[in-house]
Amino acid sequence: MREDTTFLRIVQGQAPADVVYQDDLVTAFRDIRPQAPTHILIVPNVLIPTLNDVRPEHEPALGRMMTVAAKVAAQEGIAEKGYRLISNCNRHGGQEVYHLHMHLVGGHALGPMLERR
Ligand code: 5GP
């Protein structure tokens, strides 16, 4: 199973990051290479490599990721105008870090969601 401990180290405070929210289940921090004025990553505090590895016992953390996304969007002042939540899975999905995460992006109008290559 492909795993990446980069985000786990951030969750555990062992690697630097601009953390904007943390609780017992999830952590949210600013993306190191922002693609929009607001670009925050929301991750479960346990290492789930990809969406394919999600199990019923992860549902509390996954649900929390959604409520935290809305909370952080409000905190960032982008809730009213809107934003996008994205989770990439594996190579065709463009996943780079193998610790499940949601990108919260906003702060300006976003283009079409899907890009053809
Ligand atoms: P993916 O392509 O896996 O969906 O997205 C991974 C994201 O993590 C990318 O947007 C990348 O800029 C971000 N990223 C990778 N390494 C780090 C890191 O060490 N710290 C932070 N804050 N973001 C990272």
UniProtKB/TrEMBL annotation:
GO MF terms listed in the record are: catalytic activity
Would you indicate the residue range of the signal peptide? Answer: none
Histidine triad motif (motif): residue ranges: 99-103
- Where the record annotates domain HIT, the positions are 6-115
Which Gene3D superfamilies does the record associate with it? HIT-like
SUPFAM superfamilies to which the protein is assigned, alphabetical: HIT-like
Catalytic site positions: H101 (tele-amp-histidine intermediate)
The protein's name in its UniProt record: Histidine triad nucleotide-binding protein
